[in-house]
Write a structure and sequence with these properties.
mainly alpha; rod-shaped; 0% strand
Length: 163
């Protein structure tokens, strides 16, 4: 028969079982469990430190991102202001240049008109002189020697003023 089923050995089996269980219990509670608890506690502390460091780095990264975004916003705003300023300066420069060129062009036009009028007057005087010379030559060839060049000039001026 099997020894574990024999009732006469139950007492000794229970004794040795309790003794082994107690010794193992004491060994586990005194030596193994505290070491395991220390290791678990150390791991928890390490994990908490890593979490705190990660949170700290995350906060620093968020702050850096916020500073970056602020800097970019300021840079964009400053760039827009610079562009607007340059655009206004360019418009003013173009307006001033256009006004200056317009004044110069008007002056050149006025000078050209003055020179044209002067040339026209000189040309008309030359035409009148040529016409007077021609009229004098015609009158002389027709045999009117009593009419002088002065008389022809006076007649031409009188006709010109009468209109």
């Amino acid at each position: 028969m099997l020894p574990q089923l024999d009732l006469s050995t139950y007492v000794t089996q229970i004794f040795w079982m309790l003794l082994c269980f107690s010794l193992l219990w004491i060994l586990m509670s005194v030596f193994v469990t505290p070491k395991i608890a220390d290791i678990i506690e150390q791991r928890k502390r390490k994990i908490n430190e890593y979490i705190q460091k990660a949170d700290k780095l995350n906060n620093q990264a968020k702050e850096a991102l916020n500073k970056y975004n602020e800097t970019m916003a300021l840079a964009e705003k400053k760039a827009e202001q610079e562009i607007e300023k340059e655009r206004a300066d360019l418009k003013a420069y173009l307006r001033d240049t256009e006004n200056s060129m317009s004044v110069q062009l008007n002056k050149k036009i006025a000078d050209s008109e003055f020179n044209l009028a002067k040339e026209k007057k000189n040309t008309m005087m030359q035409i009148e002189n040529i016409a007077e010379d021609l009229a004098f030559e015609i009158v002389r060839k027709l045999g009117f020697s009593a009419i002088s060049r002065q008389n022809i000039s006076e007649i031409a001026h009188r006709d010109k003023t009468n209109g």
